[in-house]
Amino acid sequence: MPSLWPPRPAYPHNPCRFRRGALHGQQLEVRMTKPYKRSISDSAKSNFHPVAEAAEVVRRVVDHGESLDRLLVQSNLSGQRSEPVFREIAYGTCRHFPHIDWHLGMLLERPLRKKDRILHFLMAVGVYQIEHMRTPDYAVLNETVRAASSLGRDWARKLINAVLRNYLRERNPGKLPEMPEHQVHAFTEFLFDLIRSDWPERYLEIAKASNARPPLTLRVNLAKTSRDKAIQALKENAMACTATRDSPAGLTLSSPVPVKQIPGFCQGEVSVQDESAQLAALELGCDTNLNVLDACAAPGGKTTHLIELLGEGRSITAVDLDSRCTLIHQNLARLGLNANVVAGDLLKPETWWDGNPYDRILLDVPCSGSGVIRRHPDIKYRRKPRDLDTLHDLQASLLASVWKLLCPGGHVLYVTCSILHRENDGVIADFVAQGDDREVLAIEKIPGVATRFGMQRLPGFGDGDGFYYCKIRKPLRTAGE
Ligand SMILES: C[S@@+](CC[C@H](N)C(=O)[O-])C[C@H]1O[C@@H](n2cnc3c(N)ncnc32)[C@H](O)[C@@H]1O
To answer: Is residue 298 lining ligand 1, measured as CB closer than 6 Å?
Structure first.
């Protein structure tokens, strides 16, 4: 067992520890290749403890690249009174883990044995609470130690106590040995380097915004009510909110609440949707009676917005893979709306397309999610270098495929929730180079950072997430005709 007694001097005096911290960073790159069999409750054994459960969730996200949302839904605490605190601890520790991990690397004399790695995450959860929550330090120490016992590791109580006490004593010495920049900003090295190279002037602000707690933003269904009325209804229920700057239908709650408590949610007067996501349907521009395709539609956030904007009875087809269409139906049902939902593969339009070309196509492709890390901090651990090649190829194939479904004079709005050039301008550059029937149009209704082909919103711009939009028109006649 790593020894911490007697307490060592503050870690600036021990530069070799820096290397150990860096090694931890590399361990983050391990990815799960096989399904992980243990359930979260197994880890907590009989004396289930919420802090132990949070540590296990973080371990599975960081070491195995599992989905944070899915783990939280599966957890024993889902629906329990302590769920909000448990979620805050799990989310927050995932958000800040690369930074916390560096400190733990300094404080531990050597890494824990593989079978005891859960304790590393238990300490990380403790450090997160000390740094970012209002829980008194003594309570954090007590609960973390108790959580170790609940995991059947009584032997580690002293170790955990010592590490957290040393952390409290030494976390802010005058000078720390140099921490790698990606860990200063709580990012994995690969993702941080990509963001810094794509946004050399703005990467620090992006990292900061990506580590902030995201706001809960609503989209008011302007076909049913007004934004002012929605704000009034929220205020009457003691829920403070502000109107979003760029989306005329958006409002942001000052403190998140369970959606079912939001007035008008169950009646379909409001939906949860980020401000940047709300701007896509506005930009698509469907003011006349046009044939519209929402490609990559699930779970239906933008489909339902399009229907709210256009009115029912308009021709809107929403396509997604079979397994995802239930989500679209659920969203439509809650809002009492209808659309032509088609379970189909966009890469094989011959299997589902009726041959009627579309005037407008919204193509919201699968992407790295690098613009929504503040909502999904697990993206930091789930994304690997090879994913970007795979995603780029899929994005390019989807764009090429839907292009064939577009009528001359119509346009596609290509959208990602990524801030990486390769998935954004990179896909468009390849696409426009492949034919002279592709005219890039200006983005008109979305403020942001203009890029070579489109418009980028960075995370935290307005109230919104990081999104990219590019509009491409198919001319009525191609050159030479
Ligand atoms: C970013 S999400 C779309 C979000 C959606 N537009 C919204 O606002 O709620 C991307 C979607 O693309 C879908 N998708 C990926 N490949 C596809 C394919 N070959 N055919 C149809 N849909 C696909 C995924 O199932 C996923 O639902």
So the answer is: yes
If asked whether residues 317 and 429 sit together in one domain, one would say: yes
Active-site option among 94, 325, 417, 470: 417
CA distance 325 to 48: 37
Q: 40 C-alpha vs ligand 1 centroid, how far in Å?
A: 29
Whole-number Å distance between alpha carbons of 280 and 469: 8
Q: Is 3 part of a structural domain of the chain?
A: no
What pTM was computed for the model? 0.89
Q: Domain check: are 458 and 330 in the same one?
A: yes
| Same-domain pairing of 81 and 138 | yes
Structural domain contains residue 205: no
Is the beta carbon of 425 within 6 A of some atom in ligand 1? no
Residues 343, 468: one domain?
yes
Distance CA 91, CA 324 (A): 25
Closest residue CA from atom 7 of ligand 1: 301
Query: What's the CA-to-centroid distance between 252 and ligand 1, angstroms?
Result: 26
Average confidence (pLDDT) over 178-206: 96
Cα of 28 vs centre of ligand 1, distance in Å, is 28
Distance 301 CA to ligand 1 centre (A): 11
pLDDT band per the 50, 70, 90 thresholds, residue 130: very high
Could you report the per-residue pLDDT of 428-481, keeping only the tens digit for each?
999 999 999 999 999 999 999 999 999 999 998 888 999 999 999 999 975 555
Cα gap 358→315, rounded to integer Å: 10
By most ligand atoms within 8 Å of CB, the mutation choice from 217, 307, 320 for ligand 1 is 320
417 is catalytic: yes
As for how many domains the chain has, the answer is: 3
Residue 209 domain flag? no
- Answer yes or no: is the C-beta of 364 below 6 A from any ligand 1 atom: yes
- Phi and psi at 408, nearest 5°, equal -55, 140
The verdict on 282 and 264 lying in the same domain is: no
Helix H or strand E encompassing 134: none
| Residue 61 structural domain | 11-186
Nearest CA to ligand 1 atom 1: 366
What whole-number distance in Å separates Cα of residue 76 and Cα of residue 48?
9
304 and 431 in a common domain: yes
Residue 153 placed within a domain: yes
Helices (H), 298-378: 301-310, 325-335
